[in-house]
Each structure stands twice: as structure tokens, then as C-alpha cells.
Amino acid sequence: MEEKVIICNDLTKQFGDFYAVNKISFDVYKGEVFGFLGANGAGKTTAMRILCGLSYPTSGKASVAGFDVYKQQESIKKNIGYMSQKFSLYENLTVSENIEFFGGIYGVERSEISMRRTDLIERLGLEKEVNKMVGELPLGWKQKLAFSVAIFHQPRIVFLDEPTGGVDPVTRRQFWDMIYEAAAGGITVFVTTHYMDEAEYCNRISIMVDGRIEALDTPENLKKNYSASSMDEVFYQLARGAKRSDN
């Protein structure tokens, strides 16, 4: 049996009479690249905050890396990595200082930080930029560095919230190569994106509409089930309330 690292059963988040997340259920497996899609306001950010141990659900059950979202939020935080398009690195610190700082925050031993930092800088080809302020780096390099820092402590799961926003297509492809490498090493990747071509790179995709999961399958099966030639078409049909094909 494949190991389940995220388990959700009827997970719900309610604000007054409004259901931001409405009884969603799904599992995510070790080493899987899991796409979590939805339009703005669909509820995906609220759900991600719960899974990252940053917010309590109203009802339902969920566990992340084997820890309960109600009772073990601090344990969840120690076993995950997180990267956001908006904030992941300190731009007024150098490349080296960012690595050291986040390595310490994640609880990596100082001797281990030094070894891993050297390896990371070599893999990214940042030897000449190691003492530059992160704010001076091109966006694509910032994002690749931010991802590397997010998995620096070798977490079981990394959550990526719109990680490639504003990045050129070539750099986006390189970024996804890094995602595949992490997944091949056993790290589960939970990613939100509004680029439908990137959805094709995921092992499975969940699509949220108005707080509910309206579809969950592989990209190929979703396109087949909705008689679509691309994930753009699938997403458009779901947004319009279309039903899956019987073919």
C-alpha cells in the first residue's frame, strides 16, 4: 500500500454562514506531486492554511504527516516546508545568510547547515552570488532558491502556493524539474497554481469550486472524463458547472 501523508475527511471551515471549505475529502501519497487548483475565492488557500497548521477547521478530520490538524499543529509545522510567491526569503540578507537563517529556524544542526549550504549553492550554480543580497537576484533565481530553502530540512511534505507566478516559461520548466527531483527523493509536493499547463505536470489534480472539490483525478483522466483537450477546458467546464462525460 502507498503511504498516505495527507488525509482529509469532510474537512470544513465556516465563517458565520459562509463555508470557505465545505466537506472536502481526499488523500495525498508519499512522493506524489498533487495539484490543488481553484479560482480565487474557491477555498484552496483556506484549506492549505489548515493543512499547514496555521488555522483550525470548523469540523471534519485531517492529518498531515501523521499529525492531527486540531491537536498537533506544531508537529505538523516541523514536518513540512512552505513556499509562497509573495514571501519566502529575506531580500535584505545575502543568499548565504538566508540559507543559514532558515536552516536554523527549521532546527538543522549548525554543522549540517554548513554542508547542506555548500551542496545547495553548487547545485543551483550560485557560487558567484553567494554573498549577494537576495533582492539583487532575478526572480527566477529567487524562486529556485526559495524552493531549495523550503526543503532544506528535508521535510516529508512541501506546500507551494503559486510558486511560479511571474516567472518566464523556461524558468518555470526548470523549477518543475526541481519539483520532480524532490518528489523522486520521497518528498510530497502539494502545489497550487493558476497556470493550467503546469497542472499537466502533476500526478493528480484536485479542482475546487465554491469551497467544494468538484473533480479529483489524473490530468489524463480528467481530460477524458470532460471530453477536453486541455486542463484549461476542464477548468472552464467545471467553473460553469458542467458534468463529466459518460464516455
Summarize the helices and strands and which ones pair or pack.
Elements: E1 4-15, E2 18-29, E3 33-38, H1 44-51, E4 59-64, E5 67-68, H2 73-78, E6 80-84, H3 95-105, H4 110-124, H5 139-150, E7 157-161, H6 169-184, E8 188-192, H7 196-199, E9 204-209, E10 212-217, H8 219-225, H9 231-239
Parallel strand pairs: 3-8, 3-9, 6-7, 7-8
Antiparallel strand pairs: 1-2, 1-4, 4-5, 9-10
Helix pairs in contact: 3-4, 5-6
Give structural notes:
By secondary structure, the protein is of the alpha/beta class. It has 2 domains: 123 residues, Rossmann fold; 69 residues, no CATH class. It is built from 9 helices and 10 strands. The strands form 2 sheets. A 6-stranded mixed sheet has the order 6-7-8-3-9-10. It has a 4-stranded antiparallel sheet with strand order 2-1-4-5. A hairpin with a 2-residue loop joins strand 9 and strand 10. Helix 3 packs across helix 4 and helix 5 packs parallel to helix 6. The longest helix is centred in the C-terminal third of the chain and has 16 residues. It is globular.
What's the quick description here?
The radius of gyration is 18 Å and the shape is globular. The chain folds into two domains: 33-62 and 155-247, 3-Layer(aba) Sandwich (Rossmann fold); 86-154, no CATH class. The protein contains nine helices and ten strands.
Q: Which percent band covers the strand fraction?
A: 25-35%
CATH-derived architecture of the largest domain = 3-Layer(aba) Sandwich
The residue fraction in helices comes out at 25-40%
Could you state the order of secondary-structure elements as H and E? EEEHEEHEHHHEHEHEEHH
CATH topology-level name of the largest domain: Rossmann fold
Count of DSSP-assigned helices: 9
Shape verdict: globular
